[in-house]
Design brief:
single chain; alpha+beta; Membrane-bound Lytic Murein Transglycosylase D, Chain A; 2 domains; about 25% helix; about 10% strand; elongated; disordered C terminus
Amino acid sequence: MKEINGINRHLTVPAGRTLLVPMNEETESSNLADTWENPGFLAPDDYYMNRMVYRVKSGDSLYSIARANRISVAALKEWNRLRSNAIHPGQRLTIYSNPRAARR
């Protein structure tokens, strides 16, 4: 279900959101084309995550960057494949954000 609905571990699914449910292989028909065209299924463009690149400044820490962007240090490390908390000025870090979630 995660794969066909574009859900990852950093995106929470709000109550009431329409999800696709995989059919078993023995089923002959599908309404997938109708589902994709249904306006109730489509999420607004701002629902999905935005990607930005942050350049580390002197004095920054993973904690301060994560806090400023309202994300977890663990997510920041995972997105950037960091094995330790060591970062250096000039380093570029990828940060994903969800504008709708940030407004809550």
